[in-house]
From TrEMBL:
GO biological process: methylation
The protein's name: SAM-dependent methyltransferase
Keyword Kinase on entry: no
Gene3D superfamilies per UniProt: Vaccinia Virus protein VP39
Length: 242
């Protein structure tokens, strides 16, 4: 087995559970948004009696914020992907991709990298003056990585900051904070690229190592010559009030 094949085999063997990215240590780096999302969630939790994390994944970020805030209120999360639900690290997890809660049920709703945001439903379940805080995937995130697999893509037409603002306001929410940042990612071997694409499924929908083997080989050759493959993520922070 050559180096390329060995790296792909290693990537294919990595579990996909949760959002723990410790496996990437030494193989990739990702610049983090300056606002510190987990810390912001912890700050908001200190003032919340009833909080919900939407699409919590493995719950790592929410659990960190809960512990940092010493939160003791009603703490709920939703997660639709059943392999993750049983291991989510939060007190109460509802296995759903919807928001099956009563009107005004929560005074804080948070969501990190949601696949989609149900704006009207989010507004409905917020109590009066309740807060929605979310770190969203922005327009054209990791475009370099997507195009390395798919070829040239048209300009992104969704998830621009002002589109996110408009969607929130259309649901009746008052936007009190909106920020966007472009963040550098460096991948130091093709195993890191392949595992990232397996894990972060929206980058190349339908990605499999076998299907994109030739494209991955081109990335491997680039890393061999340049020492890394560079891409850029976009993140949008929105805070809105009911």
């Amino acid at each position: 087995m050559n180096d390329f094949d060995a790296l792909l085999a290693e990537a294919a063997a990595v579990p996909l559970d949760g959002w723990d990215f410790a496996w990437f240590e030494g193989r990739a780096t990702e610049q983090r948004p300056s606002w510190g999302y987990a810390g912001l969630v912890a700050e908001r939790l200190t003032h919340a009696a009833r909080a919900l994390d939407v699409q919590t994944g493995g719950g790592e970020v929410y659990a960190y914020a809960i512990n940092k805030a010493h939160a003791t209120g009603t703490l709920v999360a939703t997660e639709a992907w059943m392999p993750v639900t049983a291991r989510t690290r939060v007190p109460h997890v509802v296995a759903t991709d919807g928001l099956p809660f009563r009107d005004g049920a929560f005074d804080l709703v948070v969501s990190r990298h949601p696949v989609n945001t149900r704006w009207a439903e989010t507004a409905r379940i917020l109590s009066p003056r309740g807060v929605f805080l979310s770190q969203q995937i922005g327009a054209g995130s990791n475009r370099e990585l997507s195009e390395a697999m798919l070829g040239p893509l048209p300009p992104p037409d969704r998830q621009h900051p002002e589109q996110i603002r408009a969607a929130a306001e259309a649901a009746g929410l008052e936007v009190v904070r909106l920020e966007a940042e472009r963040l550098r990612l460096e991948f130091y071997d093709v195993a890191a690229v392949a595992h990232f694409l397996r894990k972060v499924v929206w980058t190349v929908p339908g990605f499999t190592i076998g299907k994109y083997r030739d494209r991955l080989r081109a990335v491997h050759e680039q890393i061999t010559v340049k020492g890394m493959f560079v891409s850029h993520a976009t993140r949008v922070l929105i805070e809105a009030r009911a």
